[in-house]
Amino acid sequence: MAQVGYLPKEKEKAFFETLSKNALVYVPCLEGDTVIFRPFSPERTLCFERSANIPPKTIIFPQSETLFSFDYKKNADDPQKTAIKLETNQEYPDVIIFGARPCDAKGFKIFDRVFMDTDTPDTYYKDRREKTVIVTISCESPSAGCFCTAVGGGPADKEGSDAIITELEKGYFIEPVTEKGKAIIKEPFIEDGSPYQKEAVERQKAANDMLKNPFSTDLTKISPSLFNSDEFWEQVVSKCISCGACTYLCPTCYCFNITDEQAVNKGERIRSWDACMFFHYTLEASGHNPRPTKFQRFKNRVGHKFVYYPEKYNGVIACCGCGRCIRYCPVSVDISEIVGYLRGSGIEPLKGPSKDGANAG
Amino acid sequence: MPVKNPYLPELVTIQKIIDETPNIKSYQVVFNDLEKMKNFSFQPGQVGQLSVFGVGESTFVINSSPTRMDYLQFSVMKAGEVTAAIHDLYVGDQIGLRAPLGNWFPYEVMKDKKILFIGGGIGLAPLRTLILFMLDNRANYKNITIIYGARTPPDLCYKDDLKEWESRSDVELVLTVDNEYPGWEKRIGFVPTVLNEVAPSPDDTVAITCGPPIMIKFVLQNLAKLKFRDEDVITTLERRMKCGIGLCGRCNIGSKYVCKDGPVFSLAQLKELPEE
């Protein structure tokens, strides 16, 4: 049995159709100008050329999901009495995410530590995660803003992947990483990949050399005096409009809100994405807000990824360097520039207007 | 064994409602499932999430004592949507409960020490659980002093407890209100000021304080002036919480989550956290 596999491009659709018989296969699809993960169907236009606009975290950690439903049932004999019935539904299908980027796969590992490696695991995330196989495509051409190598990743990094594929001229080279990944190369249409191994490794190396590295990686510590300087944060974040796009598009951002929705006697408790960049996120019922200003919220976001999470998890940075928050920020806030400066790059981030002219709130 | 769903509340029924102050009510609840009531255990200082299904969830300390398990008590000050909805409930109504959550008072290290409680307003709730716990294990602790204040006499919580503690010879209770009030003959003044007047010795003493942020701020300053060591000063923090299990992100201070790593912190631990 071959250790590595090869899928010829002309058999790509047939392969996905076969896989789709037993699992929900998510692939990056082109919709207008946007690349987004959708369940495979032959009519869709697949797009492996560039990183998806929206990371595949939505598949395991949906933007909104029902935690349970509740039902107030009136007692027919005694209308004064009401019973409450709670119901959960955590039946999830087997899922294959095909064509995630190494940064996206690494993002799931950053989730896993928080949602699974704890004494109170998040069963919704865990159940979905355990039923998911992640097949990653190694990056051929990094996009503007990518900086995965600065946070310990790379265009062919295997962390979080069950298998990693590399696009070659006429097909895909497939290298299993986990047991789940080994099952993939036993699927129909997969040939022995060993003749293609050399070509794949060369391609991976070429991509690695193309990446920018905005942090000097030997400097692992963030300057505490700068990190604790309100003035620094006020300046670098003054242009931020608190839209939250950076958090929603981030493969490692997992903040969420829990709300109830009810109609008549029935309703649901719903978990939805939240964003630490929003004023209301930390606002208390008393009116007190521990992070009332934009710069405090931004500091917490950067702090969480580059200081607090590493403190908790053996120095692991909670950023996968995918660059989405840089590419899609409407006002071009660049986290790699800011963290680079905090780590002593010597290159000052582009400053916004001074405190007087800034919308500090 | 399947992993427990951490978001699914247990159903509990309200057995008794006590009007503590004009805007604070205490709720005594029991699990609908009596087996669960029997098996439930918690530590003094741990919190629970109360659910009004259709409105939402909020975090409250379990202010009854683990030594008295006939019911669990929560005190709710009307402030936001969930607390307003809880205030609309009646005896017999069912609500959801996720508990116990968070850490607890380090009562083991307080053994054989003098205990100083300093509370303000609804801040007496987390102290109450520990006070009751200590009174039920009275031999384990030396002098117990309670300094408690509120804006006006009607704003004092747990009036029955206060009466009992006042009558006990093994508890020193110091009550204060912010301003003069008809019929009030005890102390007048803010809690931090009264703390200075009482001027307890820091020797062999652990101070535990909870109250409005402004009160805590000045109590901590005054305890430092009285030469209390940071390790011997314990407080509880409040933050907006949702998940209660250290995931949803909003209650963090640096790498610590108030819901899971707290709510109980010593002043020494707080000084390690980044300023916000």
Give an overview in words.
The complex is a heterodimer of chains A (361) and B (276). Chain A has 361 residues and is α+β, with helices and mostly antiparallel strands. Chain A has 12 helices and 12 strands. Helix content of chain A is 29%, strand content 21%. In chain A, the strands form 2 sheets. Chain A has an 8-stranded mixed beta sheet with strand order 3-2-6-7-8-9-1-10. Chain A has a 4-stranded antiparallel beta sheet with strand order 5-4-12-11, with no helix packed on it. Chain A is flat, with a radius of gyration of 23 Å. The N and C termini of chain A lie far apart (62 Å). Chain B folds into 2 domains: 92 residues, Translation factors (Elongation Factor Tu (Ef-tu), domain 3, Beta Barrel); 123 residues, Rossmann fold (3-Layer(aba) Sandwich). Chain B has 7 helices and 15 strands. Chain B has a 7-stranded mixed beta sheet with strand order 10-9-8-7-11-12-15, with helices on both faces. A 6-stranded antiparallel beta sheet of chain B has the order 4-3-6-1-2-5. The longest helix of chain B is centred in the C-terminal third of the chain and has 13 residues. Chain B is globular and about 50 Å long. Chains A and B meet through strand 4, strand 5, helix 4, strand 11 and strand 12 of A and strand 4, helix 2 and strand 13 of B.
